């Protein structure tokens, strides 16, 4: 199929002639003699409508003898629209049935894809999915930069891409494509023979067992090995396992005996690639148990010849169908276990059943007989009480004893307990008086094995308390005739439904206690309530009255201060006194304290000035019993400190108008939010103190902050400046020896001087000492030779304020002398630098070398022998890092000078 570009860009001219005319004029170069033996068609795109990415037309359908028709019709193509070349090639391939037969497409285009498709991705798809698909591409008038976007169509499908820049080159390109197309289509490669897989397995295996199967190769992880009857059709399968990335696995044998085949099969097409014969034999299973067992009991069973752990032993009615079961258990890796007998007496069978196919492999008859159970309890009991019960002949620990209404159906229960391994226990009586039954019930089948009648009678309970009580107070209550310790006494609104409660307590083993009155005055009831059924057994009316509470405090207080409060008429120690915004809802609080057994205390004022209320609030119901207005006013606080301070130093601060000892003075970044702080101290009962400056220089604020609400009451600007710290020490020293370190400009006595390897992270430290009030100190050098750094570090922020490089030499190394080196401290990777020197002595072999910092003395990366006047030029490595320049007297094996240089 020829796919011809009819897009608007074909009107472009080459040497004064439109590209469409040039292409139409040399078309016969493409349509040579080869068209007589091939089916050829013509497709064009972009030749009918503007801006339409679907403008693709098959002008001449592929067929025999179409050359003349194509040459005639090509002249009617008028460039008009877009360039949907990817869709056109895809449509041409589809019309040629490229997935079933070899297909060739010749694309002629002067432009790139303009309809958001990727021709390279299409080429991948056509190559993978096609049967001998080839695309040849002629790029007409395309620049080199654009050619790659089209050439991939040809390159990825085995075709040719030919660029043409004028009429002559286009004619030559068409001729070259004609030659390529005229070559006979290659014969499709024969389908490779399917590889054989060797399958291995045992010659025999018991029915239902796991069979270990092997295979010598895995062709696809989703292939599978199955077991089928000998001679089964290809494609059939029974139990199977996926081969995954293994070479063996366990396969479940069928339940039926006979001759079978193990087969390795492909997941795609279910083709058989390997087989092995196997005979499935009858398992030798035995089963034994007692001849009789009691209904519902656990009885012992033993077996031999277990086939698979998920086989099971069950009990079924005599003659039941295979696959039936009542109670059962899996055999797992055991040879004995216990099985639960059914609830109904009669003739049954024990069976060993294969999980595979549910075939019965062994069985034994068993008779289930009636248990002899007795049950005894009192003839009467009080509603809700615990009463004693005894029994004999327990069948199973999960059987239960219950109490039910007389004549209730089997399986009913009100209160109950499991018998476990006991012969006596206590049972809770129902709440309602009447005639009931005690029953011993098998868990298995919920059959009643023994019963006894019992009458539940009304308890005689009395309850007494005061006729009145204050809202929220604890008042005394007494009672007699308690039925159960979890019964409770409560107070409820007069006439409330049974089961209602406001405040309550459990009676336990007491006959008196205190109960909290509700917060709201009114008529209420005291009630004794059974936990069982929540029945009210006794009650008494009580009136809850309003307490007489008074509250007094100052008319004004400063924001954040502690001010005195007094009160009378305390109701309960957990009532509280609070301060709230004027008119706030009941239950609101800002600051508060519990009244306990006091009549006066201090309360913290809020941080914000304004009108507030003091309130006495009952804990019960959070009702306000007394209140007083109070105005919170602004404190007059002043704060002063220096205009500047050094980073990390302690500087003096003074203040007046302290509100509370837990207020604090802090330093924060200029403009920081209220409540921010860096370093701070509590004001306590002082008016001056020292504050630590931050580690970073900049503009900051000193602030006096109320602890209450973290409000700033006073502030002052302060500038933190950089300290001028110097640090000196030796340039080199032997390992383990002592060096004298000196410094100036110490900021704080807890600042420290440390020695660390060059390049160690900020904040690292090795050996160190605090500077205290000194200006010099000795320090022992590290034991490991190398390049190190002395650092003066602020304790505040762990900032390094001064550094001094020091080289630790081997303990027996000669110290450098007799020369000096001059070179830059730092330079760029690969840079050429000048190195100068001064030397006191001469010898036959003096060199300047460049080495890594940890490199042995007489080894180097680069060396220059001294033969003239300084300086010499030396090229630095490309790799950043710490390096060392060395002046070596090689003849005398001496190090005369060295200098560190950083490449960055």
Automatic annotation (TrEMBL):
Q: Which residues form a coiled coil?
A: none
Region of interest: Disordered: 181-201
Query: Sorted alphabetically, which Gene3D superfamilies does this protein's record hold?
Result: von Willebrand factor, type A domain
Superkingdom, taxonomy of origin: Bacteria
Residue stretches making up the VWFA domain: 1-177
Q: Where are the transmembrane segments?
A: none
* Name the record gives this protein: VWFA domain-containing protein
């Amino acid at each position: 199929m020829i796919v011809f570009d009819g897009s608007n860009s074909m009107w472009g001219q080459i040497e004064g002639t439109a590209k469409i005319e040039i292409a139409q004029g040399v078309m016969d170069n493409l349509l040579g003699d080869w068209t007589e033996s091939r089916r050829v068609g013509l497709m064009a795109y972009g030749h009918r409508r503007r801006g339409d990415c679907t403008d693709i037309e098959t002008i001449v359908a592929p067929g025999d003898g179409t050359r003349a028709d194509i040459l005639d019709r090509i002249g009617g193509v008028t460039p008009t629209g877009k360039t949907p070349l990817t869709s056109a090639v895809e449509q041409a391939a589809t019309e040629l049935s490229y997935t079933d037969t070899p297909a060739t497409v010749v694309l002629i285009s002067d432009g790139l894809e303009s309809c958001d498709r990727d021709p390279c991705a299409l080429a991948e798809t056509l190559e993978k999915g096609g049967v001998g698909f080839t695309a040849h591409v002629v790029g007409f008038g395309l620049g080199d930069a654009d050619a790659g976007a089209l050439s991939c169509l040809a390159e990825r499908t085995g075709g040719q891409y030919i660029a043409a820049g004028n009429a002559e080159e286009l004619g030559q390109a068409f001729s070259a494509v004609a030659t390529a197309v005229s070559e006979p289509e290659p014969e499709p490669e024969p389908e490779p023979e399917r590889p054989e897989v060797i399958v291995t397995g045992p010659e025999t295996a018991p029915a239902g067992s796991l069979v270990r199967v092997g295979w010598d190769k895995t062709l696809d992880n989703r292939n599978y090995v199955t077991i089928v009857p000998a001679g089964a059709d290809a494609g059939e399968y029974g139990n199977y396992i996926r081969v995954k990335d293994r070479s063996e696995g366990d396969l479940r044998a069928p339940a039926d005996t006979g001759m079978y085949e193990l087969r390795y099969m492909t997941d795609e097409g279910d083709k058989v690639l390997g087989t092995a014969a196997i005979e499935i034999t009858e398992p030798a299973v035995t089963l034994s148990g007692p001849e009789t067992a009691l209904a519902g009991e656990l009885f012992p069973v033993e077996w031999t010849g277990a086939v698979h752990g998920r086989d099971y032993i069950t009990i079924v009615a005599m003659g039941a169908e295979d696959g039936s079961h009542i109670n059962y258990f899996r055999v797992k890796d055991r040879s004995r276990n216990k099985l639960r007998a059914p609830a109904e007496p009669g003739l049954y069978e024990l069976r060993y059943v294969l999980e595979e196919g549910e075939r019965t492999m062994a069985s034994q008859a068993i008779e289930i007989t009636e248990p002899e159970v007795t049950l005894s309890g009192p003839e009467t009991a009080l509603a809700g009480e615990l009463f004693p019960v005894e029994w004999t002949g327990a069948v199973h620990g999960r059987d239960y004893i219950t109490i039910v209404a007389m004549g209730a159906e089997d399986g009913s229960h009100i209160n109950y307990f499991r018998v476990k391994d006991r012969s006596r226990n206590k049972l809770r009586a129902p709440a309602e008086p009447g005639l009931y039954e005690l029953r011993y019930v098998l868990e298995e089948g919920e059959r009643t094995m023994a019963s006894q009648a019992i009458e539940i009678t009304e308890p005689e309970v009395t309850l007494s308390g005061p006729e009145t009580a204050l809202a929220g107070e604890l008042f005394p209550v007494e009672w007699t005739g308690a039925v159960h310790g979890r019964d409770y006494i409560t107070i409820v609104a007069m006439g409330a439904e049974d089961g209602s409660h406001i405040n309550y307590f459990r009676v336990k083993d007491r006959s008196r206690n205190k109960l909290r009155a509700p917060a709201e005055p009114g008529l209420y009831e005291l009630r004794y309530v059974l936990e069982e059924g929540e029945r009210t057994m006794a009650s008494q009316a009580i009136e809850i009255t309003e307490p007489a509470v008074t509250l007094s405090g100052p008319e004004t207080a400063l924001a954040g201060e502690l001010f005195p409060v007094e009160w009378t008429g305390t109701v309960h120690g957990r009532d509280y006194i609070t301060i709230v915004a004027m008119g706030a809802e009941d239950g609101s609080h800002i600051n508060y304290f519990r009244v306990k057994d006091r009549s006066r205390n201090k309360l913290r004022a809020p941080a914000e000035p304004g009108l507030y209320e003091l309130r006495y609030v009952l804990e019960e119901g959070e009702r306000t019993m007394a209140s007083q207005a109070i105005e919170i006013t602004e404190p007059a606080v002043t704060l002063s400190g220096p205009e500047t301070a050094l980073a990390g130093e302690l500087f003096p601060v003074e203040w007046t108008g302290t509100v509370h000892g837990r207020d604090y003075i802090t330093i924060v970044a200029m403009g920081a939010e209220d409540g921010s702080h860096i370093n701070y101290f509590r004001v306590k009962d002082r008016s001056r103190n020292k504050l630590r400056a931050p580690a970073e220089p900049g503009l900051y604020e000193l602030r006096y902050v109320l602890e209450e609400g973290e409000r700033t009451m006073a502030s002052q600007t302060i500038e933190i400046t950089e300290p001028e710290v110097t640090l000196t020490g030796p340039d080199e020293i032997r390992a383990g020896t002592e060096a004298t370190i000196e410094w100036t400009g110490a900021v704080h006595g807890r600042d420290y001087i440390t020695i660390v390897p060059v390049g160690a992270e900020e904040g690292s430290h090795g050996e160190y000492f605090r500077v205290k009030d000194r200006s010099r100190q000795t320090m022992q050098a590290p034991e490991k030779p190398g390049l190190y750094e002395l650092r003066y570090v602020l304790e505040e922020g762990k900032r390094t304020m001064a550094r001094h490089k020091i080289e630790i030499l081997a303990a027996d190394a000669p110290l450098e002398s007799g020369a000096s080196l001059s070179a830059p401290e730092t330079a760029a990777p690969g840079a050429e630098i000048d190195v100068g020197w001064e030397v006191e002595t001469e010898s036959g072999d003096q060199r300047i070398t460049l080495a890594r910092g940890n490199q042995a003395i007489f080894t180097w990366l680069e060396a220059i022998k001294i033969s003239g006047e300084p300086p010499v030029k030396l090229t630095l490595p490309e790799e950043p890092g710490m390096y060392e320049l060395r002046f070596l007297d090689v003849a005398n094996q001496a190090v005369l000078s060295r200098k560190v240089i950083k490449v960055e």
